[in-house]
Amino acid sequence: MMNDFLTEDTKAIILLCGVFGKESSEKSLTQTEYTKLVRWLMSVDMRPSDLLQKESVAAASMGAALNKQRLEALLNRGVQLGFAVEEWQRNGIWVISRSDADYPVRYKKHLKEKAPPLLFGVGERSLLNGGGLGIVGSRNVDQAGEAFTRKVAELCAYNRMPVVSGGARGVDQISMTAALEAGGVTIGILAENLLKKSVERSARHAIADGRLLLLSPYHPNARFTVGTAMGRNKLIYAMADYGLVVSAEHKKGGTWAGADEELKRENALPVFVRTGNDVPQGNSKLLNLGAIAWPDSIDRNNFRQQLHDLAVSARDKRPKKNPSLFDFQAAQETVPVEEPPPATEIVEEKTPIAEPEPVVEAEAKIPDCPTSIYQAVLPVILNKLDSPATAEELAETLDVNKTQLNAWLKKAVDENKIMKLSKPVRYQKAESGIQV
Questions:
Q1: CATH entry, 352-436, from 3.40.109.10, 1.10.1530.10, 1.10.10.10, 3.50.50.60
Q2: Distance (Å, whole) CA 121 – CA 141
Q3: Which of 151-160, 326-335, 404-413 has the lowest average pLDDT?
């Protein structure tokens, strides 16, 4: 039964990262530790499920610099996992990992290595595609803020846009409830007690109707902490096309922290904010950080396009940053896409990301312009390889996704532009390499 409920990869990831109770003698892997382990698995063409074979654990321990006894103890928690799975199934809770085909594409794209290894969920799994408007705000919202929240949530329902929020008291609950009452769809990203929330009467009806998805990166019985709330904030934004801050205290509370974090992100989503004479000071301060003022008037029948146009206009006015090597890969990803590709098209992290074709204006062709992104970035890579370096060191130095860098390195090695050294694996510019 457990094999039908969990993929082999997910089983391994839960054993490594899951929490099954205070009696566990070993501390589960943190996200940072798990990311190190994933990097090593990718480097040797292995998957998390391979760690269920005892002979792989010793190599993984050395490769990821993790304690062997700790890894073995975590992976030997099969009995505890079996009891947990039985409880989850009994309550309609399912689990997916970053290795599963239906893991949210948006999380991998927006959060990359910081996407949570595990997600616990209840409700309509097709809603994992996400989209819509992420609505956030203070727990203690005033009457004007409450009325505004209800109006926006009803607008989303009318336009068949999901409302994404956090399930907490105040703006979160108001927006989710208003959207559901108006016949809309809601995605709740929870920081605490998924199990308790899922059995509430209002939630059960919406789940049965296929209009509610409750999701959490934390154990279904987890209690609220400031840390879980902060970790949840980025998941709300990453699941949506746009964010909307109804009310935020200046430099105080989770709403401010979440919006501040998103606005500072390299690939930030458009974040709107309620404006007016009676809004908290934090709202106006967010405008200074790059948030977009919510429009005074809304075209009810053209709501989607209105938000899209405002987001594009704000992006075009944003000061241009000095490009990094990663900008070649991230080009044209700043404007949200209403209909993301289905999750089944995404393969686990070890598959290299395809190189996007360079965009060239028809009337502004530049002589001797590189014909591919690879040709454009190869001189930059070679500049860093006068002395041997690992792929990890290069990825950090060049600010580029390691999976994409590995694809470029392999191509350069095949062309004898770069030499691959062993024990340990490092790269160095070949004698025949391009002189830069």
A1: 1.10.10.10
A2: 28
A3: 326-335
